[in-house]
Amino acid sequence: MSLLYRRAVLAGAALPLFAINTRPARAAEFSLKMANNAPLTHPQTIRQQEAVDRIRAATNGAVDIQLFPNNQLGSDTDMLSQLRSGAIDFFTLSGLIVATLVPAASINGIGFAFKDYDTVWKAMDGKLGAHVRAEIDKRGLIAMDNMWDNGFRQITSSTHPIRTPEDLKGFKIRVPVSPLWTSMFSALGASPISINFAEVYSALQTKIAEGQENPLTLIQIAKLYEVQKYVSMTSHMWDGFWMLGNKRSFSALPGDARAIVAREINASALQERADIAKMNGSVADDLKSKGLEFVEVDKPAFRDALKTAGFYGEWKKKYGDEAWAILESEVGSLT
Ligand code: X2X
Q1: Is residue 37 within 6 Å of ligand 1 at its C-beta?
Q2: What ligand 1 atom has the least distance to the C-alpha of 178?
Q3: Domains of the chain
Q4: What's the CA-to-centroid distance between 214 and ligand 1, angstroms?
Q5: In what order do the strands lie in the sheet with 293-295?
Q6: 146-164 per-position pLDDT tens digit
Q7: CA-based R_g, the chain, Å
Q8: Is any atom of ligand 1 closer than 6 Å to the C-beta of 106?
């Protein structure tokens, strides 16, 4: 019997009364956990809450997913372990950090690969995304079809404005925990420090790190402008989140419930992309009004510095010719 049919029968008057009374009408058959690292007011959290609410309604309460946003269940690194063990069932994680488990998953973060959002979504909803999802699948996790937007990343600093690669020399920059991030900022001459997002605000406040890099929307929502002075519009990579699922938890759901979960989560991902696109229209003005100083950068100089350091060749070798060819078929030649 399908889950929804079973639910309908349980809720219906066709059963003798005692059968209904012996069982709580709306007890969830599947109580699951979803987690993220995003602040409560980030569109990611808002749209994920809406998704789990719609899933509960569409399954007549059978699938009850509780959302734990804002690192409530730990840092990204902790939550990835919990996802793998089944302590968490769904978790959104940057592809670059997924790469600590599935190396192919950082490929969208290659420096200056994407020129705009049209190119991003065509690739990530298309061949490049399919390649990464297939690799994730081999490691006991599933990834929903549509990625969630984080954004094009910009460098902030509390000490001096970053205009050229030379300004990055020895710069203590916080990067997320991921080999690609460390490699890229080392190639640019900086001194990257890997820190999970949960600790970023305090790391900047205490000057453990002079700077960090994140999309403007996150700099705004996480109030990083309070502890940073300058922002340099490098757009050095595009970063997004995969909605990962524990394969055992997801497979335990009946087929019709799986379809509802996937449908609603993907619908929310598309809405979250639109939310971020809308915010991108006003976020710079807002950050300026809050005192963040915007810095003009010599963007090609950063890309040339990566080329000279052998960054592209090194990562092409790591991903392999096949994956690199898929990337270049979407974004053009990188080397
Ligand atoms: O950790 C970060 O900087 C963040 C929030 O952008 C990611 O999740 C990669």
Answers
A1: yes
A2: 9
A3: 29-104+115-148+241-279 (3.40.190.170), 152-238+283-331 (3.40.190.170)
A4: 7
A5: 191-194, 172-175, 211-214, 154-157, 230-232, 293-295
A6: 999 999 999 999 999 999 9
A7: 22
A8: no
State pLDDT tens for residues 89-130: 999 999 999 999 999 999 999 999 999 999 999 999 999 999
Q: State both tokens at 133.
A: 């999802």
CB of residue 178 inside a 6 A radius of ligand 1: no
Q: What is the reported pLDDT for 22?
A: 45
Atom 4 of ligand 1: nearest residue by CA position: 197
28, amino acid identity? A
Backbone φ and ψ for 273, nearest 5 degrees, come out as -60, -45
Q: Residue 117 has which token pair?
A: 């959002």
Distance from Cα 94 to the centre of ligand 1, integer Å: 7
**Nearest Cα residue to 237 out of 323, 282, 176, 279:** 176
Length of the chain in residues, anyone? 335
Note the helical H segments in 141-252. Answer: 179-187, 200-205, 216-221, 247-251
Q: Which residues fall within 8 angstroms of residue 40, CB to CB, at 6 or more apart? A: 69, 70
Token pair 């990835």 in the structure block, residue: 80
Q: What is the DSSP string of 13-78?
A: TTS-HHHHHTS-TT--SEEEEEE-SS-TTSHHHHHHHHHHHHHHHHTTTSEEEEEE-TTTT--HHH
